[in-house]
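ok so I'm stuck.
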Amino acid sequence: MRRRNFVKGIIGLAVASPLVARAQQSERVRRMGVLMPYAASDPQVQARIGALLQGLQQLGWSDGSNIKIDYRWSAGNEDETRKYAAELVALAPDVIFASGSAGVGPMQRATRTIPIVFAIVPDPVGAGFVDSLARPGGNITGFTSYDYGIGAKWLELLKEIAPSVTRVAVVRDPAITAGIGLWGAIQSVSPSLGVELRPVDARDAGEIERALVAFARTKNGGLIATGSAAMIMHRDLITSLAAQHQLPAVYYDRYFATAGGLISYGPSNVEECRLAAGYIDRILKGEKPADLPVQSATKYELVINLKTAKALGVAVPPTLLARADEVIE
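replied:
not stuck anymore, here's the structure
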C-alpha cells in the first residue's frame, strides 16, 4: 500500500508540476522602462504619465504589484536622455515606453531588440523609427500625433483669427524630423496667404527670447509654436513673450491655450498616452511591435482663449468660435 501511494504521489507531482510552473510564470513581475525627455515636475507631463498608468491599471497592471516601472526624466538635456536610454536597456525590461521624437530616437539607438511603445511622435516613418505605419517592421510601434499638413492648418487659423498678420515667427526644433517637416508644410501655404516666415530655433531659452524680441520690433507679427520636447520646456516663456509683445499665436497643444495662449489646434496628447497602455499590455502578453500598426490621432481639438484675444485686441470671427471645441472666457 505504501509503495502504491508513493507511486500515486509521484504521478500527481508530475501532473501538477507544469500547472505550478505555469502559475509561477504568469505571476512573474514584469518590468517596464519609461523614458521622458521632460522635467518630472511638469504638470502637463504628469498628466500624460497619469493617463498611461490609468490605462495600464484598467488592463490589470499595477506598479509595484505585477509590474515594476522604472522612470527616467532628462528635462530636455540630450546628453542625459542618451545616458538614461542606456540605463533603461541595462535593466533588461520587458517593454519600454518613450515619449516624443526626443525620447524615441535615443531609445532606438540604445536597443534594437527590447520592445518600445511610443506616443506623441509626428512622423515615425520619416524619423526612421518604423518602416511603415501599417507594418512597423522592428521593435518599435505606437501612436503618432499628426501629419505635417497640420502646419498649414496652423497658419490658416492664425490668418483667420488675425487677418492683419503678414509676418510669422515659427518656433521649431530643427534637431528633430518634425521640426523640419512642419516648417516645410507651413512654408508651402505662406505665399498664398501673403505671409513672410521667420524660423526661430527652440534650442534654449536665451535663443528663443532674443529671436522673438527682435522679431516683435516690426509690426503685423504673429507666432506659431510647433510641437517638441523643447517647446514644452519653454512654453511659459513663449506664451509670456507672445503676450508681452502683442503677438497673436497658434499652438499645437491645448495646454498652451489654457495657460494663456490665444489659440491651439491639435490632438490630445494625454489620450495618446492612455491608448499606448493597450499596446504595452499586448506586448507583455506576447505580441510583437512589428505586428502592431502605428495608429494615428483621430480627434483634434480647437481651443480659443477669449480673454487673451481681448488683451491682444483680436476680434474672433463667429464662424471660428462656432467650430471651437472649447472656449476660455
